[in-house]
Amino acid sequence: MTDFADAYYKASRDFSGIMGSLESAEFVNDVQVAIDAALEALMKEADRRTNVDVDYVKGHIAEVWHAETLKVSAVAKGNDDIWANVVGNNKTGQDINYGNSETASFAELKYYKTAEDNARQLGNPDYANSQKIVPTDQLEGVIADSQKQATRNQDIRPEVAAAYQDTADTVNDRIEVDGIMSRPLSENDAKSIASDFKCDGEIDPDTYGLNTESFIEWSDIFRESGSAALNAAAFSVAMTAAPHVYRIVAQYMQSGQLDVRLIPEGAGKVLSSSSGAGLRGGLAAVITGSCKAGLLGQSLKGISPTAVGIATAMALNSIENSWRYAQGQITGKELAFHSSRDAVALMTGGVGALLGQMIIPVPVLGALLGNLVGSTLGAIGVSYANNKVLGICVESGWTFWGLVDQSYDVPEEVLRESGFDLFAHQVFRLEQLNITRFNTQSYQATGLGFTVLRRGVISFNTVGYQQ
Questions:
Q1: Please, how many CA atoms are within 13 Å of residue 409, restricted to the half-sphere of its CB?
Q2: Helix, strand or coil for residue 181?
Q3: Which of 32, 168, 202, 427 could form a disulfide with 147 if both were Cys (CB 3.0 to 4.6 A apart)?
Q4: Residue 83: which region, alpha, beta or left (left: phi > 0; alpha: psi -120 to 50)?
Q5: 11, 346 in Cβ contact below 8 A?
Q6: Rg for the chain (alpha carbons), in Å?
Q7: Phi and psi for 448 in degrees, rounded to 5?
Q8: Residues 187 and 133 sit within 8 Å (Cβ to Cβ)
Q9: Which of 323, 78, 29 is nearest to 179 (CA)?
């Protein structure tokens, strides 16, 4: 395999870490955009009622709150089918209209000072077909008082008793669609929000839980990381299979016959690459999502997704190389070389991803192209530099701080090819030799033949003699 091909395959696998990080960061950003939209809607509602007392404004704030936080929760749960809006037409029982693509419902909100006042207001039979919403701190009180009034009026006013019983059975502190709910809001918080807008023109989102860590849960992170892992694996399959498909098609076009031997070779590499890519993408997505969402603390919310992707790929590559070394598949010098090459390739790939995203502002695509170019060039550059260093070591005997072995022993196979007769000596006994006389004989030398040896790379980072 050429240096370029090897670098290309590693880049297509290692980019999955960056890809998973970017996908997870985009999910968190979508939730933040929904939160910003909720804050904007609350501010507009408060601005419309600047000259109105906060005890009146709090009810309208609560309507916007439940409609907007339902939409934020839907984004956090990955459901784009849910909608909600404040009706604003003052029709009975129609404060909020909400639902999904198949259903639509109305909600009626009451945010009076006491649970008894809210129970009495919701006892209106005209609200029977609406979801009744009250402050979260008054929910139990509204249920208890409604049940009390239903029992009290059961015999004397059955229709009133039925309305109160409906309140006791259905009242809630949030609206819900397909298991996705708005955020509960107490009467005091609704009034405080209205007061903050009235005094300062804005609110502190963290004070009222309007932040990513309040809406995104660990289950959401794992769901998105699973999706990121599948996407990373699919991407790696496409990138790894492309050269093999091209090779098979080119060979068929040239010879007119399909070489079936090429198919298992490509399939094995595709499966190996995709499994590693899925692991890198999923793990990087979990780390990035949890950090960006604030689940691991405020200090990590500004972490770079690209940096997380690079660090994840680097860590997993180091584990893989260390495992191969422990199994005796590679030497210590090969471990050092692979680790340094991966580090350089990942760093140049990260820089390439940032530049690519700036040049091509299309989500993921720009980073993909930039990373492939950067990491491939980085890996090739390391291999090229390594060859140059080995050339210097061949001529000078330099060991490059111990990373290159300098062997001055001529291998036996080289000696045999050079014409030398070799023997393997064993233990032998000495015997005395008595010479009484001897005769000398002359000989005629016809010539001496020999092969010149030269130094070169005879194995991985090992310099010795070769023909």
A1: 5
A2: strand
A3: 168
A4: beta
A5: no
A6: 38
A7: -120, 120
A8: no
A9: 78
Tokens standing for residue 147: 């049940």
Amino acid at 36: D
CA distance 284 to 310: 9
- Grouping H, G, I as helix, E, B as strand and the rest as coil, residue 259 is coil
What does the DSSP assignment read for 133-145?
A: E--GGGHHHHHHH
- Cross-strand pairs, 131: 107
Lookup: tokens for 249: 């098609």
In 3D, which of 81, 74, 68 has the Cα closest to residue 35? 68
Report yes or no: 314 and 343 within 8 Å, Cβ to Cβ: yes
Q: Which helix (H) or strand (E) holds 63?
A: helix 54-76
246 pLDDT above the threshold of 90: no
- Number of residues in the chain: 467
pTM: 0.74
**If you ran DSSP here, which 8-state letter would residue 410 be given?**
P
d(CA 95, CA 132): 10
Q: Helix, strand, coil shares of the chain as percentages rounded to 5?
A: 65, 5, 30
C-alpha pair distances (Å), 121 with each of 125, 200, 307: 10, 32, 56
Q: Tell how far CA 275 is from the center of its chain.
A: 15
Q: 228 is written with which tokens?
A: 């990121």
Eight-state DSSP code of residue 126: G
Q: 35, 212 in Cβ contact below 8 A?
A: yes
Q: What Å distances lie between residue 392 and 323, 401, 410, CA to CA? A: 31, 13, 20
Return the sign of the alpha-carbon dihedral for residues 353, 359, 360, 362.
positive
Cα within 13 Å of Cα(287), Cβ side: 22
Judged by average pLDDT, the poorest of 178-187, 251-260, 283-292 is 251-260
Does an H or E element contain 406, and which? strand 405-406
In angstroms, the CA 319 to CA 326 distance is 10
- Distance between CA atoms of 215 and 38, rounded to whole angstroms? 13
The DSSP output letter for 421 is -
Domain boundaries, the chain: 3-23+217-393, 25-215
Pairing between β-strand 180-181 and β-strand 176-177 as defined by DSSP bridges: antiparallel
Which letter, b or e, does each residue of 280-295 get, where b requires 16 or more Cβ atoms within 10 Å of its Cβ?
bbbbbbbbbbbbbbbb
* Residue 435 CA: distances (Å) to CA of 33, 429, 441: 106, 19, 16
Parallel/antiparallel/unpaired status of strands 131-133 and 176-177? unpaired
Band (pLDDT 50/70/90 cuts) for residue 35 is: very high
Query: What share of the chain has pLDDT > 90, as a percent?
Result: 34
